[in-house]
Structure of triacylglycerol lipase:
Amino acid sequence: MKNITFSLWIVLLCEISLFASGVEDNELFKDEEFKVLYDDDALHDQITYNMRKSLNLDVDGCILLPGEKRSLQECGFNVTAKTFFIIHGWTTSGMFEGWMQKLVSAMMQREPEANVVIVDWIPMAHQLYPDAVNHTHQVGLSVATTINWLQEEQQLPLQNVHLIGYSLGAHVAGFAGTSVRGTIGRITGLDPAGPMFEGVGDDKRLSSGDADFVDILHTYTREALGMSIGIQQPIGDIDIYPNGGDVQPGCSLSEMLTGAAGGSECFMDVIKCEHERAVLLFVDSLMNNEYMSLAYQCTDPERFKKGICLSCRKNRCNNIGYNAKKMRKRSNCKMYLKTRAATPFGGIHYQMKMHVFNRKHADDADPTFHVKLYGAHHDTDDLHVDLPNKVGLNLTNTFLVFNEDDIGDLLKIRLSWEGATESLGSFWKNMKKSFWSWNSNGTPINQVLEVRRIRVKCGETQKKFTFCAQDPSVTEISPGQVITYIKCRDGWEVKPSKKRLHNL
């Protein structure tokens, strides 16, 4: 069955690509400003408002019937509490997927007094993708009409309304926000759908003007056949791209092969894993309130990988998911973070700077560095130093180190240069150089670099430290060698923080 589903998915992507390429500015919504008239019955046709009373989706909820006051009383709608509308996206199965159970359960545990309502439009979403796209406006208008009715009937405060839409459901939330009388408090887009929404006008997709605060999580922005399953462009007040919005830890094909039968099942698992990661990150933010993940404002993912963007000054960092905070006068603010492969997804980001001197025979050096961090609580394993470009000689190199656990205050750093036989990558590097790097005696030339100190900034605490060589006479390093650095005061201002800046 999954083989058939995967084949259909590929065929569908091709159809969407061909369809979208022939459509100017998304002519699916040709009736400008969506001047479509529905009577109440037609508007809500095939859409159900399922107000949850149980964490288990197998237990029937209470159905809210727009326009029928008795359903509010029967369902126990609490107008003084927060109200959440959870909106699913396109479906190939015709039923709720596993993420819905997780999100509803987490929301009800975090906000036990809240009204949690599932917007069930599966009959309209279980169609060819272009047809499902065409239905998003009607569903959004139905949601807006329901909210307007709640305002009239119960004086529902719009500031307490939060729409949470996944994939195609994110754009449904946007159309609802556009159509409602007044301004909704918040819309969260969980990897909003890309095909047929990328590059269109604000009024034809979710955008920052659809609510008082619009936050977006982008987790699947890789292109295939000229389009991305998740929208690539920033469309909210803040747009957060975990792991660059690209490959998510634990979702690679090799990782999927480890626990699967192989073949097309793995490709489907990769798509599902990366697209749904936005939902799981949001669930994680609900369940792990004491340990919130931070994202950092940056112009692009490459600068973030260099560790340049770990500042929290002037609202340049923010919590992700449910705990994200509205920032003043910001729109389309792009933010980045790295995550773990599983919940809890949060970790610790370190910016590291080290000036690398060329001391001997190292003009063409391409070292593979690792750092081991020693903390007040415990130590890390060797962490790979990911330099986006080749190491800069006689220059200051800046890079990002991410650790999955909080090891406490950093006490010591060990820098190692991977030897030629320690990994396959270093072996091949050494083999290529060995043809050109032998001296007159027929022995390989030993490359020597020097690193006198390492400067570190922790994103989560904003603390800065300088680490100098533990033995001042040992600052030079060659393949297979290590240098240990300890804290010292060396010109980089130290600003200790009493606690992690998680509760912004």
